[in-house]
Amino acid sequence: MLTSGDVVALDLGTPRGREAGMSRPAVVVTAQRVLEREPAVIHVVPLASRLRKLMSEIEIEPDLSNGLSVTSAAQCHQIRAVSVGRVDAVLGNVGPVALAEIKEMISLLLDIR
User: What total of structural domains would you count in the chain?
Assistant: First the structure.
C-alpha cells in the first residue's frame, strides 16, 4: 500500500509543452485516508533534478529515507492524477515536514483554504 509522502518511480509518458513527463520520481500527495482504500488513481507531484528556483517548487535534499540521489525540486505546479499502474517502485518517503510544505504550496496554487 502506498503512503502519503512516498517517493515513487513512475512513467508520466510523453510530455506536451512544458509538462513533466517521461520516467521520473514523484511524491504521492493523496491523503492517507484515501490511500488506505487503495484507489485506482492517485495524485503525485513530479520531481525534477533541474532546480529552477520557482516559487512553486519545494527543494528536497537527498537522504537515506527518501531514496533520492540528487537534490530535487517538487514541482507543485505540475500536480497530476495518475493510475497506480504507472508506479514502478517506491523509492522512499519525503517525511512529514517536506510533505507539509508540498501540500501547503498546492493549497496556495489552487487557492484552497
Answer: 1
Which residue matches cell numbers 517538487? 74
How far is 69 from 75, CA to CA, in rounded Å? 17
Looking at the domain assignment, is residue 56 inside a domain? Answer: yes
Q: What is the pLDDT of residues 19-38, one digit of tens each?
A: 787 889 999 999 999 999 99
Q: Are 5 and 98 in contact (CB under 8 A)?
A: yes
Tell me, yes or no, whether 27 lies in a domain.
Answer: yes
CA distance 13 to 5: 22
Say how far apart CA 31 and CA 36 lie, in whole Å: 9
Q: Which grid cell sits at 71?
A: 537534490
The structure's pTM equals 0.95
CB atoms within 10 A of CB 10: 23
Q: Answer for the pair 51, 73: CB distance below 8 angstroms, yes or no.
A: yes
Interval 75-111: pLDDT, tens = 999 999 999 999 999 999 999 999 999 999 999 999 9
